[in-house]
């Protein structure tokens, strides 16, 4: 799933900006065929952005169903004879794309790109009407799952079991791009090294007839290796490895030539040469033990919600660097491709996660409903599993070539202790390994599923845990929390002997609330809470990482546990540091990337 690019054989037009916008309150847009004429609305909406917080209208924020975007697009006149494509980097959670009166693409599942070849329905040099219908509904068959409830007065409300707001819309860019008739459709890269010689195994998928060849250039633009054919191995004498905190990228270019040697298409891809493996209790990058420091994060900012913004992205990465973090998890969905590209360039390590959050119907009681069995018909069943397989397939297809990505996390906090969990997750873990044998696979374990209860840990390569001793359990009693935490971690270590990462630990904290005592919600309590966890981590040999929940405060759905969102961030939602941010900076700025020994 190659990202569109502009080069000597391809062109690219960005379609971000203001679109005409209409909310389908009456669910009539499709029957009335709104795509066949200009939208009858005075509203305009920016792309990329979530639409929920943009308008001063409660009905729009709470809307469940479709919204419609529309604009005119002109195809460059020089594209005659080329293949012409439309691509959406995401539409949350379902997108339907119309060119003039024709449906050209439909995709269910937010956060991932999809495209359509529209050559036969547009003309170079002429304009067309682009209409995009976006649906924010979640059902038990979607990833993440949810349920629609109709109130007594007929209002439709979306319920779901994940603790972040269900922002919706066109969160990422929209593109118009061209490719030649003979084109590079996909590239898969696997890297390795032996001594000071690096290897880049590549497989290219080529549409049409032509002779393929590959070349590799170093960071100075000097060609260091070539190979003939659509697949092969490029050898790099004196290789410079991609390493955490010391990124080095080569550029792989695959070209397709005709029988006369004329270039028909090319595609260039950044490549970082590195290896990832699990050995005993250690997580190894380039054969060296690696210790994760960082955060679970969210794509979440004031006004734009989950909309991607390069300025906000750079600021977040600068704050990561300031704390001394070397990694983050894309909780709980794949982030914009630009985020992974930035991590590639700057040596930040990523645990890449599918949108499979909320697969624990027992959580209904926590969110104000009732606890249900999870793995039953009408619950998390075969329909959910089909969507889950799609999510795993798409995240691997999109992100397989990023050196920053070192673990596939295929779910966050599913029910891992109920009958049916093993039957549900075994084929999904096998699928992830089949699609990409080069990376470890994991899932993130919820605090209810302690080692004496959970049923699926042996299916995965790494144990990833979310634990809240001292907050949801032992609240205000860090001494008891410390004992309970260490006892459980040692039980996991004994049971599996695998590397363990604490992927969530944190305490809700009101900025500016201070206390001389161990008072929950105070900044001092948050810092003391984290210090306690770190003492335990340093005593448990199998611990290979700590990722605090959360990087920054974020918006959630309505609930009596949340006042204007989740407050577990070490930064506020507008990125002001709490005391815990300084405590983490002190620890991580001096902590080696190897596990500190007791």
From TrEMBL:
One of its GO terms (biological process) is carbohydrate metabolic process. Gene3D superfamilies: Galactose-binding domain-like (2.60.120.260), Glycosidases (3.20.20.80), Immunoglobulins (2.60.40.10). It holds the Pfam family Glyco_hydro_2_N. Residues 211-274 form the Glycoside hydrolase family 2 immunoglobulin-like beta-sandwich domain. InterPro entries: Beta-gal/glucu_dom_sf (IPR036156), Galactose-bd-like_sf (IPR008979), GH (IPR017853), Glyco_hydro_2 (IPR006101), Glyco_hydro_2_AS (IPR023232), Glyco_hydro_2_cat (IPR006103), Glyco_hydro_2_CS (IPR023230), Glyco_hydro_2_N (IPR006104). Keywords: Glycosidase, Hydrolase. Its EC number is 3.2.1.31. Residues 276-592 form the Glycoside hydrolase family 2 catalytic domain. It is an enzyme of class 3 (hydrolase). The keyword Phosphoprotein does not apply. GO terms for molecular function: beta-glucuronidase activity; carbohydrate binding. Residues 14-180 form the Glycosyl hydrolases family 2 sugar binding domain. Belongs to the glycosyl hydrolase 2 family. PANTHER family: BETA-GLUCURONIDASE. This is Beta-glucuronidase. It comes from Arthrobacter terricola.
